[in-house]
């Protein structure tokens, strides 16, 4: 069942980041579906220095974060990796969840074509830049509603209990000072698709 607008509009981005574990991210391009179960997320809020919209700073790049939750926020990192985020909360409150890793469920052959030859299958979608390439996600999807048919999320019925969730600081945001230590990264314990 597709996630609803109400799911995204809630005001607790950390809770949403936890609850996205086990949900399934889908893309549909040229009639070809691909999908993967979310196994790793990170929460970002305008209140902390790790966020692109820290202290309400609005730019052309992050403008979609200020809209009502339920859209794709896709940006280019280091000039080469597209990263996929789910916007949350109400209009005017900039928060989002970075999807960091997926366990492929649909369209594995297409994902492998997009990623090229890999020595280890577990490298296919085990990182935020890897999964966007495998899923065909780029800046063209930035701002797209997650309620439509190009990119969306579904509840597969998979229940990820608190005992199965590992909590840790987010990755690669040393610039955020003390905020870099916030325990806002969530992974499914023992899942082989989690980023290294």
Automatic annotation (TrEMBL):
Belongs to the DNA glycosylase MPG family. It comes from Dawidia cretensis. Keywords: DNA damage, DNA repair, Hydrolase. The keyword DNA damage applies. SUPFAM superfamilies: FMT C-terminal domain-like. The keyword Protein biosynthesis does not apply. This is Putative 3-methyladenine DNA glycosylase. CDD domains: AAG. Its EC number is 3.2.2.-. InterPro entries: Formyl_transferase-like_C_sf, MPG, MPG_sf. Pfam families: Pur_DNA_glyco (PF02245). It comes from the Bacteria.
């Amino acid at each position: 069942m597709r996630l609803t607008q109400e799911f995204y509009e809630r005001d607790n981005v950390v809770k949403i980041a936890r609850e996205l574990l086990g949900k399934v991210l889908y893309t549909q391009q040229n009639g070809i579906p691909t999908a993967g179960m979310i196994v790793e997320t990170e929460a970002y809020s305008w209140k902390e220095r790790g966020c692109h919209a820290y202290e309400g700073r609005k730019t052309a790049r992050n403008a979609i974060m200020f809209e009502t939750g339920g859209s794709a926020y896709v940006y280019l990192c280091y000039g080469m990796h597209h990263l996929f985020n789910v916007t949350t909360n109400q209009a005017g409150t900039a928060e989002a969840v970075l999807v960091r890793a997926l366990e492929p469920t649909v369209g594995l052959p297409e994902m492998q074509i997009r990623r090229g030859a890999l020595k280890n299958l577990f490298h296919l979608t085990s990182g935020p830049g890897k999964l966007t390439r495998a899923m065909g996600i780029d800046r063209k999807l930035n701002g797209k509603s997650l309620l439509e048919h190009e990119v969306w999320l579904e509840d597969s019925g998979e229940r990820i209990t608190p005992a199965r969730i590992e909590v840790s600081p987010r990755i690669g945001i040393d610039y955020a000072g003390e905020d870099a230590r916030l325990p806002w990264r969530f992974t499914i314990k023992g899942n082989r698709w989690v980023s290294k």
